[in-house]
From TrEMBL:
Reported cofactor(s): pyridoxal 5'-phosphate
Organism (species): Flexivirga aerilata
InterPro entries: Aminotrans_3, Aminotrans_3_PPA_site, BioA, PyrdxlP-dep_Trfase, PyrdxlP-dep_Trfase_major, PyrdxlP-dep_Trfase_small
Location(s) in or outside the cell: Cytoplasm
Amino-acid positions noted as binding pyridoxal 5'-phosphate in the UniProt annotation, renumbered to this chain: 130-131, 273, 336-337
Enzyme Commission number(s) from the entry: 2.6.1.62
Stated name of the protein: Adenosylmethionine-8-amino-7-oxononanoate aminotransferase
Protein role: Catalyzes the transfer of the alpha-amino group from S-adenosyl-L-methionine (SAM) to 7-keto-8-aminopelargonic acid (KAPA) to form 7,8-diaminopelargonic acid (DAPA). It is the only aminotransferase known to utilize SAM as an amino donor.
Binding site for substrate: 70, 163, 302, 335, 418
Family per record: Belongs to the class-III pyridoxal-phosphate-dependent aminotransferase family. BioA subfamily.
Keywords tagged on the record: Aminotransferase, Biotin biosynthesis, Cytoplasm, Pyridoxal phosphate, S-adenosyl-L-methionine, Transferase
A GO-annotated cellular component: cytoplasm
GO MF annotations in UniProt: adenosylmethionine-8-amino-7-oxononanoate transaminase activity; pyridoxal phosphate binding
Amino acid sequence: MPETTAPAVTDSLAARDSLSARDGGLVWHPYAPLNGPAPYGVSAASGVRLTLQPPDGGVPIEAIDAMASWWCAVHGYRHPELDEAARRQLDAFSHVMFGGLTHEPAVALAERLTAIAPGPMAHVFFADSGSVSVEVALKLALQYQAAAGRPRRQRFLTIRGGYHGDTFAAMSVCDPVDGMHSAFPGVLARHVFAPRPPIARLADDETWRTDENALAAWESEFRSMASAHRDTLAAIVVEPVLQGAGGMRPYHPRCLRVMREVADELGLLLVADEIATGFGRTGRLFASEWADVAPDVMCVGKALTGGYLSLAAVLMTAQVGRVITRSEFGALLHGPTFMANPLACAIAGTSVDIVESTWKHNVSRVSQALSRGLAPARELSSVIDVRTLGAVGVIQLGGGVDVPAVTRAALDRGVWVRPFRDLVYTMPPYVCTDADVAQICDGLIGAVREVHG
């Protein structure tokens, strides 16, 4: 056999036996068909870098994770303090039921969360994931209104463009057009959707800029819609200041203050979904702080464990706790099997400690580097907007992104990115160096230029 044919045979065998090939048609991936584009295999992760195996079985690629694994791995991978927290808890016990039992990692984490949360949060309910925490918060609001003598209040007020999770109740308060409402007709509850607020910018002097006329019009319509439905509404549910999966779209903190005022006037709960925005991502420890607003209920997740394990929490005020306690049932009607998993809580406690001691410096530094590094994208013909907020950087195109092509082009530049719709964006780990952020920005801009011009 001629020597020149051997590499081709070897490459063919490698592709056939690769992790991606074994995965294909067997494992579902998020929002992807079974016969969709082959995924990249991960063989290692350390610091802010992933080692990826191409679907064709080619040479491994080392790339900066510009996604922080969907925004949760804020400390990077194999963080020594988080690894040690996991080992310590494994040496004790990794799981016990939370019904009738408690343990130090859960109590200590609840104490930490209530201490750092915006406003006087007094109680914590642990959940499995962000979506489940939203489900719990919605249940909580309905129980609260029933216990307060307003059982007809069974609907929620939110804004278009929001995203709160993939479970049924959470989906029902996601955007009714770009969400999944049309896929599940007759199943999702019908809630009240106000217009999305006008987009806003945070200037270098930390003042917010937006179209004042559009902002006033939005406020008027929001107040009007809330008043029109006041007798049926239980709560206002919102991602504070930044809408994430709905378009990485920041809005003026004044809008959140309006929501707080309306909630107080009409006897509604204000539920802040801080799953994506919490723990420093927007340039405040919690995004609600941009508006100096304290919610009645707050959901946190994602960065809570630094990406090590799935865990979320629902925080609430003492008033909410009192009303639920004196209700017909006397309890919040939810109880996951893995509620307050000790291993996850132990890691989360250490993650929160790390966030609190490092986020302000790191997020400020990453934010400045993103602003500098992404600025040249404005010169591309395919780009209609470039924006940053905290450790979030966005390049918005005039049309849909060719996701496989942009992903591959970014990987050629040593950057893992996962675009969606018309956005090529990054929410990198906070521990990225300035050089890492510069590489991310160059990789995103280069990929957009190569694929879309």
